[in-house]
């Protein structure tokens, strides 16, 4: 039986904490979990279901969170001899963000996180990472490089381009999950029922699959009735955790790319689907079950600027295996993060198309968006979500470890809108719990487990019947 600590979790419908109410009413924890699972089942049976995943869904795999500038990327940049250029950039950005507070010893940002000054640079008080988002640094440098490139009156002596390449290459190394150890905390956490069962049997995560929780989520999601639209998975993560999980399960994913040996970005493929051919002369076809629509809104480690453009590659964007990208001399060709200086500026492809798909999908009637491990730190996403909330049939479910401790999510709670549901805390706000314990089982009983249990009962019964009867001792 899975247990959780009530004081470290919340289940908010609007501004009302239903979890506290249920505990007061004396409802046991198993029934509370059943209530939440049933609630999720009802929403997942809507026709238009979407998920938005943030960095909180990959941290257990060894990926770094990019709410601050990753320490490992910083160390990589320093190894490249770019210390002066890098730290001067950080000082410029922090002076703007912190608004002249660099002379103070401690700075607390809107998220409630505390940062301390180290010489002239603020760092996270716990992790010692530089207190500025990775994407903000990259975005700033790309914009600055563009401005300097346009000014033909001066000869450039800066190393901005080298710094951009170094930042991307450093991130590539820390987001390449295949070459990073799984966080030991995932082995130690008493989290999900099935995982505990595996641990009791002595089966460690590494001997099964690093991506077991992504696989569990996808398997549960694919149980939705086939008469519903394909589920949509949107992610802001650069890593390939979902891709590895899809491959392990044999799931087809429509991600905007087409081709085999050469895979190029073709946004029209988002409208494609996969069917079995008609088995009768009437031409009736049947949908293939294992298909999802998959959108990487901030780009991917596996996307690069293509060497050439032609009629088959109009956008100049190619998807490659990480093993080939590892051999590239210029990691600056990796396509990650939409580099608009301000959110009001026009985004270039592929981001303009990806964000258009996100907006058109979640703003349809009878839609539900479930965000998991996303801290609402991206204004592009937030604007689209706020727009969707203007639709009276839209529902937003937020699954986040910090929950309302985050000012962005707290502001959502303060809207007191019952269409906004927040699962918060070390249990209910965690991706591992969500994928393994909270995702509903649409088939009620897993067919394979049912068959296995039936066979075990049959063989057990047969063995009992054949056991020889012993003569009583005299």
Automatic annotation (TrEMBL):
<dbReference type="Pfam" id="PF13289">
    <property type="entry name" value="SIR2_2"/>
</dbReference>
<protein>
    <recommendedName>
        <fullName>SIR2-like domain-containing protein</fullName>
    </recommendedName>
</protein>
């Amino acid at each position: 039986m899975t247990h959780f600590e009530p004081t470290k979790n919340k289940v908010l419908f609007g501004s009302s904490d239903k979890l506290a109410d249920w505990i007061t009413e004396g409802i046991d924890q198993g029934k509370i979990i059943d209530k939440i699972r049933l609630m999720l089942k009802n929403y997942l049976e809507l026709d238009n279901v979407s998920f938005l995943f943030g960095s909180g869904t990959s941290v257990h795999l060894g990926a770094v969170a990019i709410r601050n500038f990753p320490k490992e990327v910083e160390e990589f940049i320093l190894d490249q001899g770019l210390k002066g250029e890098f730290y001067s950039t950080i000082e410029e950005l922090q002076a703007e963000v912190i608004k002249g507070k660099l002379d103070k010893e401690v700075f607390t940002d809107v998220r409630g996180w505390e940062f301390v000054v180290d010489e002239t640079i603020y760092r996270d008080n716990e992790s010692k990472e530089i207190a500025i988002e990775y994407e903000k640094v990259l975005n700033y440098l790309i914009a600055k490089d563009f401005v300097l490139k346009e000014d033909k009156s001066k000869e450039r002596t800066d190393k901005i381009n080298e710094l951009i390449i170094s930042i991307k290459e450093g991130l590539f190394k820390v987001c390449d999950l295949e070459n990073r150890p799984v966080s030991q905390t995932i082995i130690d956490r008493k989290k999900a029922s099935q995982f505990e069962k595996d641990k009791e049997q002595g089966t460690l995560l590494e001997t099964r699959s690093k991506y077991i929780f992504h696989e569990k989520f996808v398997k549960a999601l694919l149980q939705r009735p086939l008469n519903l639209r394909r589920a949509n998975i949107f992610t802001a993560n650069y890593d390939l955790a979902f891709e590895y999980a899809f491959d392990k399960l044999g799931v087809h994913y429509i991600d905007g790319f087409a081709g085999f040996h050469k895979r190029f970005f073709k946004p029209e493929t988002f409208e494609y689907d996969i069917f079995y051919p008609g088995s009768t002369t009437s031409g009736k076809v049947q949908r293939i079950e294992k298909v999802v629509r998959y959108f990487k809104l901030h780009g991917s480690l596996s996307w690069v600027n293509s060497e050439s453009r032609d009629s088959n590659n109009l956008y100049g964007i190619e998807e490659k295996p990480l093993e080939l990208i590892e051999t590239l001399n210029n990691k600056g060709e990796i396509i990650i993060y939409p580099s608009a200086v301000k959110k009001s500026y026009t985004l270039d492809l592929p981001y303009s198309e990806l964000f258009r798909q996100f907006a058109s999908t979640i703003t349809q009637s009878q839609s539900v968006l479930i965000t998991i491990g996303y801290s609402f730190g991206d204004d592009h996403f937030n604007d689209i979500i706020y727009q969707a909330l203007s639709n009276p049939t839209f529902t937003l479910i937020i699954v986040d470890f910090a929950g309302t401790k985050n000012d962005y999510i707290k502001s959502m709670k303060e809207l007191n809108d019952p269409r906004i549901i927040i699962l918060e805390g070390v249990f209910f706000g965690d991706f591992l719990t969500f994928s393994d314990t909270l995702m509903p089982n649409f088939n009620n009983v897993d067919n394979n487990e049912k068959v296995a249990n039936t066979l075990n009962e049959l063989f057990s019964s047969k063995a009992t019947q054949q056991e020889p009867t012993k003569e009583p001792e005299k």
